[in-house]
Every structure is written in structure tokens, then in C-alpha cells.
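[SOLVED] Need 3D model of a two-part complex

Original post:
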Amino acid sequence: MRLLLAAVVVLPLLGAGAALLPAPPGLRGRSPEQAVLRHGVTVTGAVLAATAVLALGFDHDRPGTMQAETDIGWIPALGVRIHLGTDGVSLPLLVLTALLTFLCALYSYHRPPEGPRPQAFVALVLLLEAGTLATFAVLDLMLFFLAFETVLIPMYFLIARWGGAGRERAAWRFVLYTLLGSVVMLLGLLLVGLGAEGGPTFDMTALAEDGGRGLTHTTQLLAALAIGIGLAVKTPMWPLHSWLPDAHTAAPTVGSVLLAGVLLKMGTYGFVRIVLPVVPDGIHTLAPYLAAFAVTGIIYGSLACLALSRSGAGGDLKRLIAYSSVGHMGFVLLGVATLTRTGVNGALFANIAHGLITGLLFFLVGAVKDRTGTTDLDRLALGGGGERGGERGGECGGGAALYGRAPRLGGLLAFGAVASLGLPGLAGFWGEMLALLGAYHPADGLSRPAYLVFMALAALGTLLTAAYLLVVVRRVCMGTPHAPGAAPAPGTALPDVRGHEFAAWIPLVVLTVLAGLWPAILLGLTDPAVQNLLPGVSR
Amino acid sequence: MNALAQDPVRSVVQSVDWLTIAPPTLAALGALAVLVADLFLPERRKPLLGPVTVAVLALAALSLLPLRSGDRTTFCLTADPAVCSYVADPFTLAVQFLVLGAALIAALLSMTAVRDEALPRGEYWFLLLASAAGAALLPAARDLTTLIVALEVASLPSFALVGLRRADGRSSEAALKFFLSSVTATAVSLMGVSFVYAATGSLHLDRVAEELRDTAPGLDTLAATGVALTLVGFAFKTAAVPFHSWVPDTYAGAPLPVAAYLSVIGKAVGFSGLILVTVRAFPSYGHVWGPALAVLAALTMTGGNVAALRQRPERAHSAVRLLAWSSVGQAGYLLVPIAAAAYAAEPGRAVGATVAYALMYAAVNLGAFAVAAHVGRTAAANRITDYRGLYAAHPPTALALAFFLLCLAGLPPGIIGLFAKVAVFSTAVDAGLGWLAAVMAVNVVIALYYYLAWTAQLFRAPAPAPAAAPAPAPAPVRVAAPLTAAIALTGLIAVGLSGAPQLALRFAADVLL
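Solution:
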């Protein structure tokens, strides 16, 4: 088990190095490009298999304790140790990361990225995977920071070199925002580690056991604020989110999927793993503000999406999903900010659900872009012929008619949208509901009336979310493929979902349904772990 | 002190332990040997002087090995053997290793430059070795006279080195600018030393420290002024703002290896002198130099980084200028632990972070200069825009430079840069200098911006050749062998340190002084 977890982190790193070397004889394939893309599939597949074995070998009777632990000294001078381990909080995220990266590699194998050398592309994706997996697997604050930063460089290059219009600027923005946040976070981590009871330590488990003893309230507050800002940029929390829409719009499909599906989770994971247990007093003071920002994000994200989805607004589908992420991550933050077991479990659930659903949505939008050449809602709707129809156009008539032109693709898109709006029975529902439930009865000492207001506003947010997603479905999926009575114009039919696309998307669909129908599969893992992270909280 | 007290030798003449003083002595003897050999060697044999210099520096660095066992002292007072002028303690050895190693890499860089630019060989190698000898003597010096003498021995040859390109007006101007401002700073320092001597009646650092603990009431102002003024000369060598104005022009005007040399060894001289005078000689005046150095550190990093940020990449010599300004910014980080030492319970531990950071900085900065020297051979203007597409032309070189820049920025995969910064941060946080840590955080972000912008250039597609010029398709220039050695050496050190940061960071945990 220990070796397995270490292998999960190290394997993609080695794979990234190997991707840059020429392929050995026997593995050359049809061309160097094909060989290296296959190499990516192999490595991410091996990592996925390793995480699957890890999940099977995980002792499900005691998910609250750290398992598969490795603890080796590395830099005694700073007290930094290579400390790896996983529990019920991090295990689902590890599996999600491995799964999404594997699906991305599979997707790229059949549809190579447009841009320079695929060798570099594969190496960067693998480096990104190593960084994210390490973030979820390490138990040392400095290593966490290291892993947190490691993902920046590959993501920068993925956006800047394989992205769409405006990619260099978007990539810069992404890097600068995150760096600004993470330097502040580093100060917070140092404050916690150096002031720890019984000498400086950066060990998360030791610090969580201390629960902030030995730190004054001011130190805790400062540390929670500093760490929180760094994580909030990554999450992203309103008003620190403005890098996200540009980055998503410009990123290649694979970049968007990994950014939304995995990278954003690093922020919320940090809140649960570090901020809650290590500086409990500090976050207790800050929680209402965090909740307020989270709720603002929910409302803001959904209003922005509503505006983008209007006819004539020139809204971009990728940008719209990016803004919807701001809203969804708002629910996650609200769940964390309740400081209750219910809320934090909801947050962790919503985290995974968002990874599955938004990953799927970005895949689908990428496919729409491949077929129609655009992600602009207005142009999509026009392209279908529906809105051109005149008398029935405008308010409720037109659409890109994906149902008619590519029924399976349209169906999947509708499925993704419905899952994203939180339909009961799908994964999106439970997390948001638990977060709201947590807000209904927040932890002792937090102002209940304030949280009731937050809850009401967040509930309003779910309505707005439903509204814009349904508008999107109507405008993209519905409509008439061609004028009634006329022969289908050439070029309006679109190729439907291909085999490799099914392969990449079906696992996400299945897991979305599974998590929706059987939430205990996740909650059973997270709840005991959350109990450990929130000692003395009864709800 | 314990180790010093064990030495029982008492005689009229100060005893000399030749093994202890071997590192600077070997460099100095090598300098003389090179100068004499230059007179007698026929012209065609003169290229041999370069490898000889490298060998001398390697020998001097190896002579550090037998000294590792413990603190050795020499040139002690016959009346009081505990008070010595030359001490080889862990701090001395670490800085001497840094200086000699950096000089070695600078010498490797110089081989190509001396040949390409037809610099006078004998003079060049003599000056380099002489300056290195002074720089290696300085960290061992434990009295104010030796300190100032070492400072001058390290500085004077470097003025000449900067101005060695005789035909180049820019080079002479840079040398003059450097010389005038440096001499002024040293004069101010000397005045400070004389004040301190007047107030304490001693030049030995330990004695000065004792005397300053309870100065006569009337002498208090004199002592405080002396303390403050003494710092100036060393702050100048470190290129701390506001004593930094010589840096960009000097770097851009000097032959590139000399700029590399100054950026590392000049700083090592400056900060080791600062550490010695502050922590060893003036500990009781921490309330004077602590805040002063903290402000100096904040100004230095902010000034350097903001100026580096404003460098336009298409300007001539922008790569060297950027490295010059970034080295000013890095000097600010080097000062932080020294300032923190004023507030720390164990000042000797705090300054270890400076040594650790300097080791990282030396390897990485010299590496960046080595790649700049390579690019400078094909693109004489050495603009940052000339680095565009370097990855396509020279993948290993580009990857090395990217790694060096990311180390300087402190971003993974440059792990050593990150942890060296963490060590510096933690001294500031430990000392309660929260504001300085915050200023440093802002600066780290500013620096990230320009380092990353340069790194991004390396990987962009090569600029399309101007259509007007019937491009004669320049064959990709092979990296010269000494440059390859320098890049490989610094690259190996940087990668090795990133894998095992403890190698450098153990200085941050040990009590060095």
C-alpha cells in the first residue's frame, strides 16, 4: 500500500521525463506523435489502475485514519519530511484525478491536440497529474505548497501553447493570480509551522492533532486569512475568480477539463485538510465572511451565466461553464464555512460531483467546437437554422438543434446540464443539498440568522442555475435542424458521438449517476475522516 | 570561543598555521605565478594560463577539505591567544567554498570570452585570481583592518577587470563609475572603523563586541555613528539600494564573465563582511543596525525587482541588465536574515539562511550567466528577445536556463530556490519582522513575473526571419567547451540541490558563527 501511494505520485513524474525522450525500439508506433500519445495513455492508465488498487486495498472500516503512510526525512534543516498518506477525504480526489487525466489522455490519443509537438503536451499533462496527485497525497505543509505550485508551470504552457484565442494573456493571468495567492499562502503556512506547539513542524497530522494549541488567536486569524486567500484564488472564490473565465475560454479541451475537474479542487481540499483542523479558531472567526463571499459567488456566477446565455449576448459556452464553476465552488465553500460535519461532507461531495460533471461538460463543449467550429452561443444557435427561421426565432423558438443533428451528443449535453443544475438522483444534488442543510444549522458560535440568509440566497442560486442551464439546453439542443418542409441543407448534419468519445465520457456519466443514486459510496468515506478533522463538532 | 581557548601556544611572534590560511594564499600565489608566467611565455602558449587559473582555483577549493574537522585559528595575539585575526570556522569555510567555486565557474566562462574578445590574458587571469584571493580572505578575517584590506584586495582588481576592454568606451566608463562609487563607499567605511576604534580602542571583532557592550556614556553617539558608517562599504559591495546605482551600467559594460563574477563574488564579499561586523563586532548595537538593515533589505529587493520589471526586452543588453537588476533584488533577500539576526536569540543561526541562500544563488546565477554568455556569442546585443526560440535551437541549453530562472524565481521545479526562500522567510517570521516578510512576498511575485516572462520566451516559436534580409541561415553555433562545462556544472549543482536541498540548507540550521 505504501509503495502504491508513492508510485501513484512518482509514476507520472517519471512518465513525464520519459515522454521527452525518443521512444525505444518496439514502441515506436506509426509515428513519434502517435507513440508519445500512446505513452501518455499507458502511463495515466497505469496510474489509474494503481489508484483503483489503492481504493480497493483501502480499509473502508476506518476511513478516518491515515493509510498507506510513508514518512521519510528530507530536509531536516527546515523540518520538511516526505510524508504521504491518504484517508477518506483524499482518496476520492486521488481516484478522480487519475480518472480524469486518463480520460484526457485517451481523448487526446484519438484527437491529438492542435499545436506544437505532442511530446511536450504529454509530458506537461503527466507533470500536471503528478502535481495534483501529490497535492492530495502529501501530509506535509511545505510539500503541499510545492505540489500546489508544481501544477502552475504545466498548466501555463498547456494554455499558452495549445490554447485558443487570447491564450497568452489568459495563461499569464492564471499564473500571476495563483502565484500571488500562493505566496501569501506560504507566509500563512510558515506562521502555522514555525509557531506550532513543541517546536517547528510542518506535519499536517501533528498540526491537526494540536488543533491550533500554542497559537494565539491573532496568529491563527492571520494564518487562516493568509492560507485562505491562497486557496480562495485557486478555488476560485468571488471576487478572486477573474482569472478563471479567461483561462477556461482559452485553454484547450484537455486543459479545461483538468482545470475545472481537478485543479480547482486543490483549493477546497486545502480548506478542509489544512485550514479547518490546523487553525480552528482563526477559521471560526472568518467563517461568516467566507460564507458571505461564497454566497455572493453563487449568485454572481449564476447571474453572469444568465447574462451570457441570453440571445444576442455573444456568450461563449466555455466561458459560461467557467462562470457556473464559480457558482458551484461557491456551494463547496459555503459547506466548508458552516464548520459542521454535514456542511463539510456536502462540500467534499460537491467537490467530486463538480469534477465529474464539469469535466464532462467541457469534454462535450470541446466536441461541439470540433464539429461546428465555434463555442459562441449565438453563432451555434444560428448555425442550426432555427433562429434564422424568423417568425419563430427570438425568444423561444431557435436553437442549434443538436438533438436533431447529433442526437447522442445533444442527449449527453442535456444530461450534463441537468446534472449540473442539481437534479435529484444525479451527483450534483447531494453536495449542494448537504451544504444548504449545513447552513441551516451552522456550528455553535456562528450567527444562525446570517447563515439562514446565506442559505436562502444559495437556494435562490440553485433556481438561477436551473434557469440558465435550461436556457442553454434549449438554445443548443433544441430547435429545428432545417426549415420545415425543406430538404435538409447540406452541412447541417453533424457527426455524432464517436467511439473514443464514448469511451472518454461514459465513465463520467456512469459515476455521476452512481454517486447520485448511492451517495453513501462517498459519504461513507468522507464522514469519519471529517469527524477527525472537526473534533468536538456534533452535527 | 571554546575552540579558541584550547590553543595553548604563547610566543612573542604570532604563529602562522599555513594549512589554515591555504585557500586564500594559494589563490594569491597562483595570481603571482600567472603574472610572472605571462612575462615569459611565448604568445602561442598563453592560452594555457586559463586552465592554470582554473586548476589553481580548484586546488584552493580542495585545500578547504582538511579544514573541515574543526575551528582553526591563526594570527592570534601573543598576549591573548583567544583573540585571533584569522579564523576558519564553518562560516568561513562555507563562504570560502562559495567564493572559490564561483570564481572557478567564472574562470570557465572567461576562457571563451578572453579568446573571443582578445582580452589581455596575463592581466585578466592575474586580476581574477587576485580578486578571488581577497574575497576568500574576507570571511576569515576577524579584525577590522584585515576586513577592510580584504575588501580592497577583492575590489581593486575588479575595477580593472571591468575596464579591461580597452577599445570599448562603455567599458572604461563603467569601470570609472564603479571605481569612484566604490572608493567613496570604502572611505565612508574606513571612517566608521576609525570611529569604532576611537570608541573601543580595539580592532579585533570580539574585543570590539565586548567594549561596545558598555561604552562610556559620552562615546555612545560616536560608537553608533561608527557602527552605521562601517556598514556602508559592505552594503555597497552587496549592491544594496541606495548604493546600487553602479550595478546595471557596470554589468552591461563589463565583459560578461566579469559581470557574472561581480554578481556572485561581489555579493559574497559584501554579505560576509556585513555578517561579520554586525553579528561578531556589533551585537550590542542590534537596535541600530537591525532596523537599518531591515529597511535596506526592503528597499533593495523592491528597487531591484521593480527596475528589473521595467526592463524592456528588446533593448540592447537587456538580458544582462535584467540579471543585474535581479541580482540587486536577490541581494535584498540575502540581507533579510542578517537583519533578522538583530532580533534573534541565536544570531549565528539566523545568518545561516543567508549562506544557504547565497550558495543556491551562486550556482543558479552563474548558470544563467553562462547561458547568456553562450547566446551572447551569436547575438552580440544579448537582448531578451534574442532568447526567443532557444528551445528549438538548443534544447539542453534552453532547459538549463529555464531551470536556473525558475530556481531564481523559487518556483517548482526549481525546488532549491523555493526552499532557500522558505528558509529566508522563516528567519523573518521568527524574528517578528512580519512586515519584512510581507514585503518580500510581494517582491517574490514581482520577480516571478519577469523571470517567467523570460522563461516563456525560450519556448516560443522562433521569430520569423525578416523578409528583407536574404537570411544566410546561420549554422547553429556549438556551445564552446568551457561554457558547456560551466552550464553542466551549475546545472548539476542546481539539480542536485533541488533533489537534496539539505546539502545547502543545513547551513540554515547550524550555528555558523
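Edit: The radius of gyration of chain A is 23 Å.
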